[in-house]
Design brief:
Radius of gyration: 20 Å
Number of helices: 8
Distance between the termini: 60 Å
Largest sheet: 3 strands, antiparallel
Shape: globular
């Protein structure tokens, strides 16, 4: 096969995989959604048990990003990702996902947005102001920009997301809370 044909074939294959990868990021399947919800539930349950666990800021960010991605993917499909300059798609940050919620959902009071849910289900209130403040606090710690402190109100706002049908994971994780508490203690007492 001549070199020019190999190059053309290589470009076609690369182009195919780039398009396939872009579609995967936008059109998430149920498995990805389930994994996001599970990750949210595990991390949120840990913070519900122990707000002072080492790495709490990272755990909070992980829970919030996964939870918001699952919710936005269900309520506004495609809005959970953004197209990059190179054509690839990537998941939006938690701050960007909160912005999507602020733009697309009705306001129910200062800093509170109502997330649409399944037909017939009540809308889920989200305290976007408190979650934004939590992100500001966690980002300070995670990016060495000074002291930041997670508060009970931040975790309460995070746990409130679990009322949405895209999540519903924390109660399952709480059933295993004794195991989680013991596991945390074992890991950090060593």
């Amino acid at each position: 096969m001549p070199t020019s044909q190999c190059l053309v074939l290589g470009i076609e294959v690369l182009s195919y995989w780039q398009r396939a990868r872009a579609r995967w990021h936008i059109a998430d399947d149920g498995v990805v959604q389930e994994k996001r919800a599970e990750e949210y539930g595990k991390c949120a349950a840990v913070l519900d048990i122990d707000l002072k666990v080492p790495g709490a800021a990272a755990i909070f960010d992980q829970a919030l990003t996964n939870g918001l991605a699952a919710i936005v993917a269900q309520t506004s499909p495609g809005e959970e990702a953004e197209k990059r300059k190179n054509g690839d798609h990537r998941l939006k940050s938690a701050a960007q996902l909160l912005q999507v919620i602020a733009q697309r959902c009705d306001e129910a009071g200062e800093g509170i947005r109502l997330l649409p849910d399944e037909v017939g289900a009540p809308r889920t209130p989200v305290d976007t102001d408190t979650l934004r403040d939590a992100l500001e606090q966690t980002q300070r710690v995670r990016h060495a920009r000074g002291a930041g402190q997670l508060e009970v109100r931040h975790v309460t706002a995070l746990l409130a997301l679990d009322d949405h049908s895209a999540l519903g994971q924390v109660s399952d994780e709480r059933r295993e809370s004794d195991w989680v508490r013991d596991e945390i203690q074992d890991r950090y007492e060593q």
